[in-house]
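Ticket 4471: requesting a sanity check on a complex prediction with manganese (II) ion. Repro inputs:
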Amino acid sequence: MDRKQFLSRSLKATVGTFIAGPLLANAASCNTSAVPDTEASTTEHVPRVASAPLVLAQIALPYGYDALEPSIDAQTMEIHYTKHHAAYVKNVNEAIVAEGVSASDENELLATVSKYSAKVRNNAGGVWNHNFFWQVMGPGGKGAPEGKVLDALNAGFGDFEKFKAAFTDAGMKRFGSGWAWLLEQDGKLVIGSTPNQDNPLMDVSELMGKPVLALDVWEHAYYLKYQNKRNDYVAAWWNVVNWDEVAKRMA
Ligand code: MN
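Returned structure tokens:
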């Protein structure tokens, strides 16, 4: 190889190195689960080919199973992550292949999920929602936000206690399985809920917007420790909200 070829290849290798970081970071923040493949895709958008279906990924849990004790017990966390969440990942990836899903990334899949089966809808939602949920929780929670999140909640809902009451109400009134959400709609903070594994990024959802906080109110999220007492689970959950992550998701 001559000097020019060598420089060209070295440059591509360098670009690949720098791009890998953001791609992995994106996967961790649920923006995409696309598998980084060729170096070509790092410099320009290359349409996904049929031989490389979209793959949705489960993020590594950012803390140990016991890190949210006593609010959320270790056994619930382990089963929730290794059984429920892992099953959504397995099932959606099977369905993506079986149905020839053409979406090129996770957000596009959610935004066009009406085109696909209930299996895709339920399991794609299950993957995204839990990846998001793990990240907006963490050990050492202060129980209440400060700074810009507190300001935004005060402005949107009167004060933090009123916000908490309204969000708790959304979780309590979701009949059966689903999620409570804090989301941004046209720059405004809104509270709502979705059934099953639907989320505000889906074109089929009545509640749409950009999620900044989510609470899983499926019984599998709390039944081992709290049994039928969803209200006790929600009350304890405030202790493990990671407000720094919520702040990152606010505009
Ligand atoms: Mn769940």
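Notes from triage: The longest strand covers residues 178-185. Leaving this open until the requester confirms.
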